[in-house]
Structures are given as C-alpha cells and as structure tokens.
Amino acid sequence: DTGVSQNPRHKITKRGQNVTFRCDPISEHNRLYWYRQTLGQGPEFLTYFQNEAQLEKSRLLSDRFSAERPKGSFSTLEIQRTEQGDSAMYLCASSPRGLAQVSYEQYFGPGTRLTVT
Amino acid sequence: DQQVKQNSPSLSVQEGRISILNCDYTNSMFDYFLWYKKYPAEGPTFLISISSIKDKNEDGRFTVFLNKSAKHLSLHIVPSQPGDSAVYFCAARRYGGSQGNLIFGKGTKLSVKP
Prior knowledge:
Strand content of chain B: over 45%
Oligomer: heterodimer
Order of helices and strands of chain B: EEEEEEEEEEE
Distance between the termini of chain B: 38 Å
Distance between the termini of chain A: 33 Å
Strand content of chain A: over 45%
Number of helices of chain B: 0
Helix content of chain A: under 10%
Structural class of chain B: mainly beta
Structural class of chain A: mainly beta
Shape of chain B: globular
Order of helices and strands of chain A: EEEEEEEEEEE
Radius of gyration of chain A: 14 Å
C-alpha cells in the first residue's frame, strides 16, 4: 500500500500524559501536513512541512504541541501534558511538489483518534 | 468565523438521481477549491478540484461548478450510487497563502438510498 499511513490508529491516555503520533507520507511527497478534526467539524490545519523544514504553524498549535520531520520523510506529532480538549482525530496528509502544473491536492491518512480521559 | 460554509448538514437522495452538495465561502482571496469524501474511520479522500479561473470541472460522475460572483460552489453527482454515501467536505486555498493551509467546511452527510 502506497498511501499515507498513521500510527497508532487509536490512543487512549490520561490527562497530563504525553503522546506521540507518527505519519509516513506517500513516497516522494515532499510536503506533509497535520490537521485536527473534532466531531461535527471539518479538518483544521495545524502545521506544514516542506521536506524537513516546518514552514507554517497554526495558532491552534499551542506550545504543548511539537512536530518534527527530521529527514524529510516520516513526521511525528507530540502533545505534552494532554488535556481533555485535545481529544480529536489527528490527520496527516501529504502532497507532491507541483512542477509544470500547480495543484493543491492533499492526500490524507486514516488518522489517529486520541481520547484523553 | 467560518470562511467556508456548508449549510446543509445532511442530504438524502434516491439511487440513480442527482446529488447536489453546496458550499459558500466568504473570502474573495480563495483561488482553488477542493471536494473531499470521508467514510467513517477513514481519512478524507480527494475527489475533485477547481481553480478560480474556471467555472466547471468534470470527472466522470462528479462535476464541480464555481460561481465566483456569488462565492458559491456545488458538487453534482450523477447518477448517485449507494457507495457515494459519505460525508463530503468542501475546502479552499487562499491566493498567496501557504501551500499548507486548506480551510474546510463542516461537511455534508450524503445518504443515497437504494
């Protein structure tokens, strides 16, 4: 399977614990994105990488959140001192760098569902 | 404030008929629009897109129409099939914005009845 993969698919944690999620993008996609989706809402942008460089962060990404993409391949999203409000689906997406034709399509993974108790 | 609005939370259509999903936006700087389909327990799947320089894009049973003056786009599915039952999200990208920031609506749940 050559799609975007995310691990784990589900995570239950107690308030105050740290959690880390992993995303493996489609091979050769140099752009990687993290979104958060809560019930009844569309995905909300968190952060974006081009290769290993983190180029944009949403104001939703508080200082308890950190994302890395150390070698420009997979990425991790860490949440420190989790709160109940962090409970959501965390989605990762990737896209290729457009050459001749500009395109903005992003291809999503299945998501990691986080439940903070 | 919601810059991309999908005002119908749900839509029910008979198999074989046309499904029309609507999306309104408020930011005139949006220059590219996308539709995604989402099944339960899966991530959104890209469906079709349209640039603001066009007013129509067609791909098989799916056609997206863009009315820039009304800041409105719609997705037409003809003919609708039971497998089309899913939540459909409209998304937009802002001209001059980063490559990352797609802004999504809240989605419309489509049910296609056999």
